[in-house]
Fold this protein.
Amino acid sequence: MKFRIFWAILACKVLTGILRLFGRGGTAIPGKLALQMCPQLLGELAKDVHCVVITGTNGKTTSARMIEEIFAKAKTSYFANRSGANLIGGITAEFVEHSTMRGKPLKKYAIIECDEAASKEVCRYLDPDCILVTNVFRDQLDRFGDVSNTLESILLGIYNSPHAKVCLNADCPLTSSLANRIDNTVFFYGVDTSIYKSPVSEIDEAAYCPRCKVEYEYSYRTFGYLGGFYCPKCGTKREWPIIAVSEIKDCGLDTTKVKMRIFNEYADATINLPGAYNIYNAIGAMAVSQAMLIDPFASINALSTFSCGFGRMEQFDMGQSKARMILVKNATGFNQVINYLSELTDKTLFVCCINDNTGDGTDISWIWDVRFERLAELTELFGEIYVSGIRRDDMAVRLKYAGIPTEHIRVFDNYDELIKSISSQELPVVIAPTYSAMMELRAKMSAAFGGKDFWE
Ligand SMILES: [Zn+2]
């Protein structure tokens, strides 16, 4: 066994090194190879590491980065799978990187973002101290499937984590329903109040009481089907969260000021990111910090200095103006970008890059569930909208149907032209790319305007 572990670690480390040499970091291949050589490898490497696992449909990466900031500020020794490789191969490679050749851990904690479907297997090996479930929404990949599959996968992950404290989003009816089916200690977190004055309404995003099969009603909604839900028939209702955002003080361009309730204490907090979804990411990260017994005020402080690295909300300084990049992967997430855009006060250039590669989901019909109609109402704010990516033509059609005049839609056949065009004008830019479009754009933007490779 010891030899097997040694050779598997060696192979993984060497292959990771070689791939990086060729500029291909953050892939799952070395980890997969190591698992083939030693199937028990992940369990062996994780044995003496305290693990936090983050799963759910939206917000995994940003939540993980916030938790990381909290751990960093608390001066704990940790590592994280920052590259977004969140299946068992990528996670194994990350553990190998933070182990000695004999498989002894170099860090005390691991912050692991994990795909919902992979959580069952990953959790069995990691035996985590804490699991955060962000939310359960329909993703593009299971558009015609059933969210209950996602929910069951997460549940199996929790079943395989008997020692974990489980942090559940109280405002998400599906996520919070997990509490009835597990024996773990649960930390509910949530937002006690609505966030936007008039959030865009979601299509087909209804949640039903599992007992009565009637649609939930709401005392308030935050976005999607998140909020103060209750069943008009049996009285089932949102659980009272012990860690919550109790008041939204100011939704700014770059930050959100809120009041938080942590157990029975109140504190002001600044979340160094805009948007309703980031309020949830922040309060979820706070729940984890409390489950892991980290000082709440130090944690709040970490949220105010947090800056996002990879993906979700990243900034590029283009000299004359700034570009913000927000990953989109489904209608719910994109509607949040629309909510964010409609709160802007300065004229802005909006760019949409839609691909249909495997990483994006090959079915892009969800763009018809995004409320682009709201953008058509905001012509003062958005003169032109730029469109690029493999499915640029579909996107242009969608915008046209939303009521945006054809002469305001500019289609770019390649990213070089797109980048040239956005960097030569003075308006602030918001770019919404799907996953593979983001990877490509990001590499080009980093080369043009600076920025680190994401696995650094
Ligand atoms: Zn009911």
Remarks:
- Confidence is low (pLDDT under 50) at residues 452-456.
- The pocket of zinc ion is lined by residues 209, 211-212, 231, 233-234, 236 (CB under 6 Å).
